[in-house]
Amino acid sequence: MKAEDINHVALLGSGMVGHGLALHFAKAGYQVSLYSRTQQTLDKAVESIKSNLPALLQGQANVEDEIEKIISRVKTTRNMDEAVAKAPIIIESVAEDLKVKQDLFKELDQMCPTHVILATNTSVISITAIASEARNRDRIVGTHFWFPPYLIPLVEVVKGRNTSDETMEITYQFMKKAGKHPIKCLKDVPGFVANRLQHALWREAISIVEKGIADAATVDDAIKQSFGIRIPVLGPIENADMVGLDLVLAIHNNVLQDLEASPNPSPLLKDKVSKGELGFKSGKGFYDKWTPESIKRTRERLTKHLIDYSRKQQT
Description:
Strand order of the largest sheet: 3-2-1-4-5-6-7-8
Helix content: 40-55%
Low-confidence stretches: none
Number of strands: 8
CATH topology of the largest domain: Rossmann fold
Distance between the termini: 31 Å
Strand content: 5-15%
Number of domains: 3
Mean pLDDT: 96
Largest sheet: 8 strands, mixed
Radius of gyration: 21 Å
Structural class: alpha/beta
CATH superfamily of the largest domain: NAD(P)-binding Rossmann-like Domain
């Protein structure tokens, strides 16, 4: 099978990520089978797709007609056999629970012809562990999408211990053809690539607050108003080459010994969680007050930025 042969995608799970994937693949022209155990979840998924499409299609001619075309490509079902029957690639976004995923992939492996690629959207669980109960483990691969998947381009194609090179390459090329920006993670390690980088930054950011070097807002400003601006066009490795590796080495010789290197979560973070200071969920986190209005403004600011970025990438 080649990536060009794939015109149908089966999505198992229609929650936050599942319905976002259905939107993306249907908008890209693919037939989508969207499976969930409950009709209520499926109905909610379709409504979410409909409500998100106008902003994505803004400025195009015949927006309503285009929305109908996209929605028509999404077939919902509560029957798993029906969902996977015609799809050469299946992507699951069910509960982030190892046993649930192991049981599902064992079942899928028994149900589907051996050429069908079985992909898991896990963000933290080992691909190797998920595949361990299946017989044909070579066709099981990680595809870690970032939320919302119809706006954030990245998908990490993750190689489990038994994933074949052929499965990796077909999945990579398919994601590229479908309008995603795939990268290959060649080892099944916790956090894959992007989350390892993100949480290394978060660990240091939280440590700076904990040690009283700066408050939370200052930390965020320091990132948003400096290297955060150039990250979309200049990654850290490119930046290192640009400034010179001799300078990078000199800086590291001076600063790395003072950076946070604890293998455990921050005591400040654990203390806040124990107090119920959970951020948006509770109205207080590292920032003293999150009101419904400020939460809404923050979400809207992020959504606008992601839509603008997505449109620029398409031009």
